[in-house]
Amino acid sequence: xxxxxxxxxxxxxxxxxxxxxxxxxxxxxxxxxxxxxxxxxxxxxxxxxxxxxxxxxxxxxxxxxxxxxxxxxxxxxxxxxxxxxxxxxxxxxxxxxxxxxxxxxxxxxxxxxxxxxxxxxxxxxxxxxxxxxxxxxxxxxxxxxxxxxxxxxxxxxxxxxxxxxxxxxxxxxxxxxxxxxxxxxxxxxxxxxxxxxxxxxxxxxxxxxxxxxxxxxxxxxxxxxxxxxxxxxx
Length: 234
Prior knowledge:
CATH architecture of the largest domain: Roll
Order of helices and strands: HHEEEEHHHHHHH
Distance between the termini: 50 Å
Number of domains: 2
Radius of gyration: 20 Å
Strand content: 5-15%
Structural class: alpha+beta
């Protein structure tokens, strides 16, 4: 098993700690022996004014200091429901990973993530509590499988979930050939149809991210298909 980047590069880890703790003095890095977790109060500022705060845990990614961290709000303030972009296990759905990597193919530093996507996420949560009916920024994707569908439907110009599933299977492959038939069923070869869009997605979105999205989306598609068959039979 490969060592985490913060074990391999302790000097870099210390620099990240100093950078983040200088900017967010109420957050502290904790090493439990297996992982590094950033814990404490995350403050929302408007200039020098603090207008809200959330008790959080941030589990650092192990593969890279510019990876995608796992975020949890641990103060019991945000319910674990799709409308609040929180998974059943309590992990915050701060951003759709596919969209994140497409927008930031080189990732973000932890400080950039805290100041960007995380700030937007918690600001939206505060707006919900204030009664805002449309708190999420323009272009925000849905939760879970809905977000996966919306993102890839937009990127590929396709509305059929089964076809999107076929494209996701190509995204997680090690190799894709341009002479293969395009999954959109146009009858054209991939290179003459959706090849350009697919290769752009492959160049930005890691295969493991695509694989997780494919598994999640496939499960949702199969569930819908099963429920449909049940309704038809009854």
